[in-house]
Amino acid sequence: MSNLDLQPVPNLCGGNRRTGPVRDLQPGKQVPLGESTVVRRLLPNLGRRMVGAWCFVDHYGPDDIADEPGMQVPPHPHMGLQTVSWLHAGEVLHRDSLGSLQTVRPRELGLMTSGRAIAHSEESPRAHTPLLHGAQLWVALPAEHRHIAPAFEHHPELPVIAGGGGLSATVILGELAGAASPGTTYSPLVGADIVLAAGTDTRLPVEPDFEYAALTISGACEIDGVPLAPGALLYLGCGRAELPLRAGTDSSLLLLGGEPFAEDIVMWWNFIGRNHTEIAEARTAWNDGGDRFGTVHGYDGERLLAPELPPVRLKPRGRER
């Protein structure tokens, strides 16, 4: 998924600063995406830029697209990151410059590793189900892996944990409670889709060295005593061995975590780099239409050009503001 902001703010992320347990509700903002989709952008935000290596979280829907085209995101580039497509309802057709053509459906993992350079598009198929609901997430690649060859993975089957007490969890990336996703990762992290039945009151084992955040997808639940409405992101910090979860109604949430990212990075538009020059060179390479990012074939429309760079040089910095 693309950041379609025509004046993207440079996000100066990274730095290995651990915190103890906290309960910080993170504000999001409404952002138009493509022709007919509006998303809630929850990360990066004014209070936090990263959770482990997770550096971008968009939550969209549930949207009634029965008489609408649905998601229509033109071809656009990425570098230095992985994209994670996760659906609760609907379908997204992924095309990329490697020649991949894949429809991603609910609770299937669509994982794209941009590495040094890739381009892709995302759209609802012409014949689609009436609802669209899901999340798009990015993972920053550490320095030793950020120039690897691009790749796309589709995993229709993922491990599911039955935690007891009304909890079940699908492991999207990384490992949780001994169950490991088949998706490729390059830093210690976890992403899980957790379903809570009405009346659940349980505790989920987690890694004390990981920092965590939770995004409520549907229903009404409490995470470590904090009630969350759908579309809310709660940052939880580090230092927990277990996470208290309660649900008054059938609910679902995304749990994102990982070791605090140890590197300073610059995230601008759809690129992650380490300095201004890398970002500027990537922008020029994409807008000039050369071979670096390749070509997405089959999308009915023009590719998305990168916006103008800000008038100041982009600087890598740590997590602190």
UniProtKB/TrEMBL annotation:
Pfam families: Pirin, Pirin_C. This is Pirin family protein. SUPFAM superfamilies: RmlC-like cupins. InterPro entries: Pirin, Pirin_C_dom, Pirin_N_dom, RmlC-like_jellyroll, RmlC_Cupin_sf. Its cofactor is Fe cation. CDD domains: cupin_pirin_C. It comes from Streptomyces kasugaensis. It comes from the Bacteria. Residues 43-139 form the Pirin N-terminal domain. Belongs to the pirin family. Keywords: Iron, Metal-binding. Binds 1 Fe cation per subunit.
